[in-house]
Amino acid sequence: MNAVDIIATKRDDLAGYAGDIERLEAIFSTWNATQRGAVETYRRAIEDLNGEALRRLVRMLKQEPAALAAMKQAATDEIVYAVLRRHNILKPSLSERIESALEGVRPMLAAHGGDVELVSVRPPAIEVRFVGSCDGCPASSMTFHAGVKKAVAEACPEITDILQVKGVSHAAGAGNVHFVSPFAHGAADGWRFVCGIEEIPQGGVNAVVIDGRNVILSRQDAVLSCFENACAHLGLALDGGEIAHGVITCPYHGFQYDLLSGECLTAPEVALQPHAVRVVGNCVEVRLSS
Asked: Please, where in the chain does CATH 3.30.300.130 lie?
């Protein structure tokens, strides 16, 4: 097989382009070290040139409101989004950074049967609420200041007021909901039944398709998470990857992701796209993000 033979796929989506790149990399891997080094140097030079061109283009477009609006709309396309994220031009949103910070303290809270949910984001302030056994716990004030407040302040310095609110969570809108993911943002509609909770293996993942979207569901103790089933590197499926200690490894290029937060441990500037998930009785429901 040679490079000419493989450029025959239908490339109308991200997976098509990623597949071609994957097959080319398979060819390069068979070459000697000198040849591989030359290809890698060439790749970096092309990526550096493209990245700089994109950054200059974006800077210019940002100066015109109409162009900026069109650019934001274009970024909803999966291919445009993937390329801009790869070049670190698109940054995680404030909400994503807040949620990531909260994910860092969730294992500690889960160990005591509790959790924390994001109630509202109104920069420079946010509101959070403890749920489960952490709600009303005598140590919750210490946990709030030493854990939640510190994590958010470090991840999002523009947030200066981090407030703890009391009361029963209304995020799920149903009395028999006993888990709501941090990405739900209080949503009351748009939920789709996906599977029974027993179909998600403890410490593993279950890959499903919802409205044509490929997602993976992960279960770690009482905590569930849901992400787009696409590696942030080239968009290839993750569900065949090895899972150990809450980390999934892309079966193609070895990129590793935290299954609680979606954070990429290999390249921290990228992450998996999260979706809201909740458990109603024994039923797992998902609300797809846009």
From this structure: 92-169
Q: Using CA atoms, how far apart are residues 61 and 152, in angstroms rounded to an integer?
A: 31
Q: Is 251 exposed, middle or buried (0-12, 13-18, 19+ CB in 10 A)?
A: middle
Write out the residue limits of the CATH 2.102.10.10 domain(s) in the chain: 176-290
Tokens for 158?
């523009």
Tell me the pLDDT tens digit for each residue of 165-203: 775 454 444 444 445 555 554 555 678 888 888 889 988
Nearest to 151 by CA among 104, 198, 197: 104
- Total residues found in the chain within this entry: 290
Q: What radius of gyration do the chain's Cα atoms show?
A: 21
> Under CATH, which number does the domain 92-169 receive?
3.30.300.130
The CATH class that applies to domain 176-290 reads: mainly beta
Q: Give residue-wise pLDDT tens across range 86-138.
A: 888 887 668 778 888 998 888 877 766 678 888 888 888 888 888 765 655 55
What are the Cα distances from residue 229, in Å, to 41, 223, 239? 30, 18, 7
pTM for this predicted structure:
0.41
SS3 32: coil
Tokens coding 115:
């959790």
